[in-house]
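Methods, example record. To illustrate the input and output format used throughout this study, we show the complete record for Aminotransferase class V-fold PLP-dependent enzyme. The sequence lines were provided to the predictor; the line carrying structure tokens was produced by it.
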Amino acid sequence: MTSRTGRHFLQIPGPTNVPDQVLRAMAAPTIDHRGPEFAELTHRLLPALKPVFGTTGPVVIYPSSGTGAWEAALVNTLSPGNRVLCFETGHFAALWRDMALRLGLEVDFVPGDWRHGARPETLADRLAADPAHRIKAVCVVHNETSTGVTSRVAELRAAMDAADHPALLLVDTISSLGSIDYRHDEWGVDVTVAGSQKGLMLPPGLGFNAVSDKALDAARTARLPKAYLDWGPIIEANERGHFPYTPATNLLYGLDEALRMLADEGLPAVFARHARHAAATRAAVRGWGLEVLCADEREHSAALTAVLLPEGHDADAVRKVILERFDMSLGTGLGRLAGRVFRIGHLGHFNDLTLAGTLAGVQMGLELAGVPVDPAGTLAALERLRSA
Ligand SMILES: *Cc1c(COP(=O)(O)O)cnc(C)c1O
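The corresponding predicted structure is encoded as:
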């Protein structure tokens, strides 16, 4: 076993690096979740959480990973046999499709090439072909973490409005919330699904649903089985500062601190920082002579970059060299992208020199793995970081 010194570079697109002040906040003693101190925490947390979603409505917190929050979005709003429209933007979109099928929903799955986001024009066509309004929900992954492609949610909403179609809009922001501009209320999203371990800079273990009035209405008649994930009792208990079960108290301490950090930096600055690091990363990738997987300039993810390797090279072999030699973890290629791409996470607790170190490690790893790269790539990124 090689001995390690310094910090591990956790540059996968989630879980992300947890700031020391968040770790310290979580180390406080667990308190009585039915007591007054806990109620104070809830009453501070929930209002602080809303602006991150861009909502003034309720946000439900689950002790779950993001997948649990997606299930909550479906079971609270839909009934057995309901039809939902999903877009094949990548691996995570395919997982949501699978979950919807397992819950007994019918799924229209719009095929995709894993290099583009959900197309507003295609959504318009699908809705126009549904005059009977059989589609009850449109499910979109905002930032497809398997591909580094961000769908244009505002344009998708505009297509739904233009079609005057009443379907709910359910959006997975698990890897975009707190990293990429997002507006639940303004974009007319009905349920926003999120998780703790990516842009929110927390360990895994919290799931979130931001819920519109229309989604709350739908919940009154939705008949998919639900008990633990039922919004109703949670929203009711939250009003008194409590939960209907034992909440993840120490993760909530961490959330309290992470929300303070995001508010101190200011969300516009947080989003600009992510966009800048993403642009510098693309400059490096292109400078190396490699290809960014995302094929539409309007859809580059600010949270991660998926790098396509030339034919005959195995992305996992590159990742292995980088882990062994430089103690850095990069994201693997998921699903049909296995072996073809690796993913660089540049989200969450991250700065210019984290990116410089990350890109230096990637470049050296590519060279060691025998992938032909132009060493000017990393310099191109440094140039961008220096100049802006
Ligand atoms: C990470 C991720 C998920 C899965 O969330 P879990 O917390 O692993 O359940 C789903 N969707 C997207 C877009 C993700 O990035």
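Annotations derived from this record:
Residues 59 and 174 are 14 Å apart (CA to CA).
The first strand starts at residue 9 and ends at 11.
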